[in-house]
Design a protein that fits this description.
There is one protein chain. About 3% of the residues have low confidence. This protein folds into two domains: 95 residues, Ribbon (Umud Fragment, subunit A), CATH 2.10.109; 30 residues, no CATH class. 3% of the residues lie in helices and 40% in strands. The strands form two sheets. An eight-stranded antiparallel beta sheet has the order 1-4-5-10-6-7-8-9, with no helix packed on it. The protein has a two-stranded antiparallel ribbon with strand order 2-3. By secondary structure, it is mainly β.
């Protein structure tokens, strides 16, 4: 039985110019470096996160089946519908009337949707299922 984990979809808003400061050299997570070493420019997060403007959507994840992949309840996932469904990719799938986020496993004639949480069981796709790989997850945006 598929546990109900709802996804709320929305499209990026390309009309706004929300540029934020971006430090190109990176910020070390270890020993601090002087602030003067940073080369700062401005970027748009939409430009950074979205490669295919016409086929990219955001969704708010619901549930805990993908916590092992770093997708937690309430995170925003970036989904590109133009990318191919490949073995091992994390995908948004439509199965029997519901959307779910799982890792795709493709082996010969067997397709499974694998959770990243031991409390959930894999979903084996059969001919009886209404099934579509709706898009591939490219990024996760989360609050700390």
């Amino acid at each position: 039985m598929l546990k109900k984990e709802k996804l709320a979809f929305f499209s990026p808003n390309y009309d706004t110019k929300n540029n934020v400061m971006f430090y190109q050299q990176g910020i070390k997570a270890g020993f601090p470096s002087p602030a003067g070493d940073f080369d700062e420019t401005k970027i748009s997060l939409d430009q950074f996160l979205i490669k295919n403007k016409e086929t990219t959507f955001y969704a708010k994840a619901s549930g805990t089946s993908m916590i092992g992949a770093g997708i937690d309840d309430g995170d925003i996932i970036v989904i590109d519908r133009s990318l191919p469904a490949e073995n091992g990719k994390i995908a948004v799938c439509y199965i029997d009337g519901d959307f779910t986020v799982k890792r795709i496993s493709i082996n010969k004639n067997l397709i499974q949707l694998l959770p990243e949480n031991k409390n959930y069981t894999p979903i084996t796709i059969t001919r009886e299922n209404e099934f579509i790989v709706w898009g591939i997850v490219t990024h996760v945006i989360k609050s700390l």
